Amino acid sequence: MSLQNKPTKKGFYVKPLSMACMLVIGASSTVSYANSAPMIVDSEYNNSKYSFYDYYLDFLNRFRPTPTPAPTPVPSPVRPAPELVHPTPTPTPAPTPVPTPAPISGGISGSYVAPVSPSEVRQPDYTRRVQANLKRNQPAPSAGTRTGYSVMDTSNNSNLTSKFYDTTEDGYAERLDNLKNTIDTRQAKVGVIDTGINRFNRDMVGANVNNTQVKCVSAGRSTCFTPENDSGIIEVATTSASGDHGNQMAAVIAGNNGMTNAKIYGSDSIDRRSNGGNQFLMMRKLNQDHGVKIFNNSWGSNNTDQWYYDAQRLNYNPTTGQINPNPYRTSITNAEVTLPVIHDLIMNRDSLIIKATGNEGLNDAHDENLAPLMNSNFKKGFITVSSPREDFSHANDCGRTAEWCVSATSSTQNYANDGRLSSYKGTSPATARVAGTAVLVQSAYPWMKNENISQTILGTAKDFSEITANSPNGYQGLRKVSRLPSGYYGSYYTDNQGNFYVPGNVNWENRRIVANHNGKNITWEDGWGLLDPEAAAKGYGGFYWDNVELDTKGAPLSVFYNDLKGDKGFTKKGEGKLVFTGNNSYKGDSVIEGGSLEVNGNNGGSTMVVKGGELTGYGNVANVRQTGGWVNNEGNLNIRGDYNINTQRGVDAGLKAQFGNMLTVDGKAKLGGTLNLTGETKDGIISKSGSRSTVLRAKRGLEGQFDNYRSSNPLFEVTNVEYTPEVDRNGRVVGGSRTNNDVQVTAKRLSAGNVVYGISMNDSGSRVAQNLDKVLNDLDKKQETQGSLTSDEKQFANRVFTGFENMNSGAESKLSTVSTNRELYKLDPTFYADSALNAVEDSANHATEFGKRVSTPRGVWGNISHHDYDVELEHATSARKGNNISVGASTQTAADISVGAQLDVSKLDLEESVYGIGNKTKTDSIGLTVGASKKLGDAYLSGWVKGAKVDTEASRGENSNKVEYNGKLYGAGIQAGTNIDTASGVSVQPYAFVNHQQYKNDGSFNDGLNVVNDIEAKQTQVGVGADMVFQATPALQLTGGVQVAHAVSRDTSLDTRYVGTATDVEYGTWDTDKTKWSAKVGANYNVTPNSQVGLNYSYTGSGDSDASQVGVSFASKF
Predict the structure, then answer these.
(1) Active site includes 245?
(2) Keyword Transferase on this protein (predicted)?
(3) Contact predicate 59/19, CB 8 Å
């Protein structure tokens, strides 16, 4: 049996396609007044039988079957599930009263650090802002268009934008522009299943259009309709399209003035001038070959239930997607082709199919839009789109698809392929607006699956009942009248049916609520309501579905900004932090199984069920039931109900306590599990002698105790945990209460040097730890004598403590070698000293060459070189690059003495890294060397002095701020050498040298972490070497050489203090090998008897480094 694709074949259901788009009347409406001519209409549409608002463009001249009468919807309101009422537990017998200590003493020692009040806790700022780089890289918008291409007010002579979105038409376009410059959508992909894409369309110029699109190789080709063999679907260039419609829909989604900057993947398959093909196979092809998951389908079919009837006869298996059609059938229906493909796209490929309901003014949706009736799981990835009839009067209602339907604005103006600015209406552009919104959601939350994106779009839709309640008198628009009122002299519009349209207040459309979907009303006409792209881009609007899963794996941070509503809850899975900033009223449980949930607003009546991961936040939650994972007090989270820890013994779960923060429980707290001290707040520090603080307070009392306690921060040791009555900010019991309300932790700080002892570290790691001890001990003394620290001092201590917290490998009392080195290096300014030593070593190399050059009297020379120098140390790398230009000249005086000078201009880049943490410097140096050389027969003796100005720009870690500082370099040296001619024709030129170089910076600078007061680098170097020259031809010399140099002394120091502290500390450089050997080869060519050019290469090695250099040179005698 073969697929039949012509309507003349008996029994085959052919799907004539049309764009779900209605053309209004050209670029603009004509306003007339009484006794003036009727409105001008484009000649192409003068003979239309439809009224002004009934014009539409049927691109396929498709037939119009008699619409299936819409079934009378019987509202079936769903009652919200009653709230779960927990039985009141049997009161726990009151514990034997404990005598109230006044003040607390005994087991508790150390100074008391009062927890910071909630008002003093600084919440993280998660505000999204316009990104300058996105704004800067936006394509130039097409002339005469607004962002999003909406003309709802202009085309309807209305104020609907104000009623729908509380702004003007231009104001809403500006908000959409800000939105796409806030969320980076450039990596997103969207498929436009339509009439093809022509990237030369004015709205596509500058847009992110794929070079190819899919289409059927030829009309009627069976392999464009067969799921098992779709080889007829090929890729062609996006240089032509069979119609305007595809470009216009693509423009709304991601044109140069569209809603997003997504990459557009087209399909040329629905215009009568195209070669056709199955639309869902086109989607599958784009998914398979390009990974596209969001598909815009602004096209329609028969507007009957034929597809649904055929699908029901296929014996479809919703679990596997397999069908078992009647083996005796005589033809293959369209449903037989598309149903398995729809199943594959949604259930296996995580695709989101967005499809228009159509433009026939029907009170129901039909065709493939009913696919979720075949499998309710299709609702995960299928959205139907209508349009509010206030904007487009002939939009088909959502109807039976209301549960997966949303309504979006229609009126649009953008460019046709012939360069004409075209205005039109329909559910086509409404669908494109939903697709653009899906791109925004996917880009803002890349972890979201098709179901999450769909639920976000539906759950954030505006409720039309709220819109109408805010404007009970309707909206400004055009009222249809059969004749003008007597004495009317205002503006009006006419149509070819003799009707008049006059401005005035228009009543809202009637909408029927057909269901309350777990807290949100759904209407027959508009489904979940009016699309709100801005709200959808802020995450979920509520939890209205069973089994909502938020798996944030792969996304370190995601933020939901909306006030979350609904009768249901969710399960948080996967790594990554999810933040709620709104005031939420959803009723279902919040189950945490992985990652972190941070609650920063008021979280209504939802019970937090912590099974894994972590609950934290700066706001309020209701009750907390914990069987695993962690609850963190870092943001002074408030539990308005009870806190119940019921973890199994031996499971690493319980309360993460940050010293100086306090978890407040308005009800009772039943304790268990582990109390894990992770760090401390920025107010006060845990001292070496010990400090205590309240980390949890239950206003109605504590029950039980923690099974054990520890500190996952290796810098701290918990010495005691006490359960006491409530204490004041001085650590004294309040009143005469005998009920234990507070959990107090006593901890002391360990020696940083001792903590990291035994860990394999980079060369400066131990020095960092020792200096940190020195600074922290001074802070201890100040806190003990003065009672408080400055905010900068607290901030520094907190940075250190956070760094040590990050060193933990996850196992108790075990440090990670990688993390320890990484965290210490974040606090390590050694690279400044290394950069200074790099300049010293580079200067020494140039000076050695000068010592040779100046021994040749009456000459000029120059050299241009580039070198790469890599140092490999334990747990660290240093990559150094340099470019140098040297020019010099010498002349001869009396008594065989030559004098000369050389100018060196160098650019040195240094980048040091410890397990991904990198510091960089860029150094510009300009130096002058002057010297003299005395001839002693075949030998020479040279001496020189040097001075250089050194300017450095440095950037530290991830800090984008750069600092600049200046320094000076001085040097002096002597060098002796001779020339030995051998019988083989090779001239050997041995030499020996000693030099001293010294660098010192000018003034101090602050990089945000360190105030660097002084950098000094000194090096004295001795060395021997030999150059060899072979005269291969009269004009060509071959050269080579070897050298060994040793730094007999090297002293580098960096005097600094950490920002906010007063303790001076000192650093040096990484201890690299002091002995280096090198070998070089080259060639010189005499361009004149006295002038030559050369090319050379050298390699330098040591025990921990290797370097290579290439250079070109010239020399001339006079």
Answers:
(1) yes
(2) no
(3) yes
